[in-house]
Amino acid sequence: MSSKYGLLVLNSKNVQKLKQLLTSAAAALSSKLYVRLNPDEPRTDELVSKIYLTSASSCPKLDVRLVVSEIRGNPENYVLIGEEKLLENAEKLAAAKKYKKVVLGGTFDRLHNGHKVLLNKAAELASDVIVVGVTDKDMIIKKSLFEMIEPVEFRIKKVVDFVEDISGTAKCLAEPIIDPFGPSTRIKDLEAIVVSRETIKGADAVNKKRNEQGMSQLDVIIVELVEGSDEILKETKISSSSRRREDLGHLLRPARAVPRETGAPYIIGLAGGIASGKSHIGKYLRETHNFDVIDCDKLAHTCYERGSSLNRKIGEHFGGDVVVDGVVDRRKLGTIVFSDKVKLRELSELVWPEVKEKAMEIVKKSTAKVVVIEAAALIEAGWHKTLAETWTVFVPADEAVRRVVARDNLTEDQAKDRMSSQISNKERLDNSNVALCSLWAYEETHAQVDRAVEELMKRIL
Fold first, then answer.
1. Which of 138, 172, 284, 348 has the greatest count of CB atoms below 10 A from its CB?
2. β partners of residue 102
3. Is there a shared CATH topology between the 96-226 domain and the 246-460 domain?
């Protein structure tokens, strides 16, 4: 049985066995590994990066934390990794911190070892306060798969927890920022700013603005990013974008506990906006994984058959002249709803229950292990609340526009107008259990789906 927390003390001798020690930690621990340097092993930027880079591959599931000051609590309560013990009074021998207050910024999504290198540097330098700006809103929308970025409140909590856990007495003041400057040009007594080599220009812009405001210039501390690779996103550093891509096809939030009779199929919803690739994935699930897939867009057309209950309800709601001889006059109905979003919503609320009723009738007759209800407006209709899982397919908005223009021979403005009636990718993903992105080659999309199916079958068998 693995223990939750561990302590690895490095000195000038055992640091040569870093990979071996971290591999041992991966086998012995289930949560966090604290790393402490004894005074005979100097703290250098190269060593800090090496510790986090090696841990990314040797113990990727552990939350590794290189402490700057004392270990919280009694070190004897931690599982010791290796034979080296923490020297007494080691904290007193540590170098004095250079600044009182430092600042840094970032998105800090899915807090990873690259972030930890930056935050470690700030904790190493600041004795009193570490100010962190956490980007949000317009500052994140250009990032790859930004729709999957964790809520800013969650990211702030993770940053504060990490920094105050490793920094000793220094406090972490973190806040959301919606511009490139945030607290860096508001707090006068800051002394230094920590940046990566890729964001030096941002530090220069901060100092320029501080100078214009009559504030002191900040020392610029440059930290090299931890190396990594992502062939799909074409990135060479450990990044949150890669972490988000790796989460595609995995369960992002637990499935709902929906009652299911013995032998009845497991039902999942498949949602997605215009040109998201939803239909392609539905077809792939049917042909490759033998799922029954109910196309609700096609099913909706059958609800408009002559004399149907839906037609009667439409006539009652929008006026008798919209329905002639039991058939909806689509042109007349269109003139009413397509220029008025409120009316369009009213029509949808008439259609959705009818479609769902027909879909559930099909489900009852299915002999498949899994039935997929494929519906563009599944989340808008609230169906996801009654399903065990919802899988959402998405592409960035600009890619969806490009696809609609090419597929439907529309102008860009026409495509954007058509998409404006939909909820956003972010709203869909916030209500989904699994995210799938069809932005890249079919092989990559299929790999995500295969991963999702593999995990699904383990959950339901």
1. 172
2. 130, 192
3. yes
* 91 neighbors 132 (Cβ within 8 angstroms): no
Token readout for 304 is 């408009």
Within 13 Å of residue 200, how many CA atoms lie on the same side as its CB?
8
> What pTM was estimated for this model as a whole?
0.89
Q: How many CB atoms lie within 10 A of CB 161?
A: 14
Question: Cβ–Cβ contacts within 10 Å for residue 192, how many?
Answer: 22
pLDDT in tens, 147-173: 999 999 999 999 999 999 999 889 999
Instruction: Tally helices (H) and strands (E) across the chain.
Output: 16, 18
From 195, 173, 199, 197, select the one nearest 186 (Cα to Cα).
Answer: 173
User: Which class in CATH covers the domain with range 96-226?
Assistant: alpha beta
Residues 6 or more apart whose CB falls under 8 angstroms from that of 223 comprise 45, 117, 118, 121, 194, 195, 196, 197
Cα(192)–Cα(115) distance, rounded to whole angstroms?
Answer: 18
Q: Where are the domains of the chain?
A: 1-95, 96-226, 246-460
What whole-number distance in Å separates Cα of residue 295 and Cα of residue 358? 11
